[in-house]
Design a protein that fits this description.
By secondary structure, the protein is an alpha+beta fold. The chain has five helices and five strands; from the N terminus they run βαααβββααβ. 45% of the residues lie in helices and 14% in strands. The relative contact order is 0.15.
């Protein structure tokens, strides 16, 4: 089941000091962990911009070369951290609301409601990339998600996972 976040589309008109909902705060905390645990060369480039998505892709690619020595729990943690970084970046770029997907047990960003439903989930893609699946191209995923959020046809329902 989905839990609706309390972040609404009018948030842009509210003062930044207003507290965000719990799911948003958890996503932001995981994303901050990704920044703090990133290689030194990348720290200043992880600024939640569109360009930073490619940096995340490069970091995950580097980590995938070392994944053979990482326990499953650590792979899951890395997937959550960078997955949340990507979700928060997409939120900053395209808006939307965060929800929890109980079936897949991960957060998701939903944009364009009520006219369309464009969904982004990132944890499984990041983990796939960590495990060496080059088809799980993170920058491409977010680029396609961004394109889908730009003037979608009414009734469109699509998920990027």
């Amino acid at each position: 089941m989905l839990k609706e976040s309390k972040t609404d589309t009018t948030a842009a008109t509210k003062p930044e000091s207003e507290p965000k909902n719990e799911l948003y705060q958890e996503i932001a905390a995981w994303a901050q962990n990704a920044v703090l645990n990133s290689p030194t060369w990348s720290i200043n480039q992880l600024d939640y911009s569109e360009k930073s998505i490619t940096v995340v892709d490069m970091i995950i690619s580097e980590l995938s070369e070392k994944n053979f020595s990482l326990p499953e729990e650590q792979l899951d943690m890395i997937a959550r951290e960078y997955g949340c970084y990507l979700l928060l970046t997409a939120h900053k770029l395209y808006g939307g609301q965060f929800y929890w997907n109980g079936e897949l047990e991960q957060p998701m960003l939903i944009c364009c409601e009520p006219d369309a439903t464009i969904v982004l989930m990132t944890w499984n893609k990041v983990k796939g990339r960590l495990l060496g699946d080059k088809a799980d191209h993170l920058a491409y995923l977010l680029d396609e998600f961004g394109k889908a959020t730009f003037q979608p046809k009414k009734g469109t329902q699509v998920a990027y996972l």
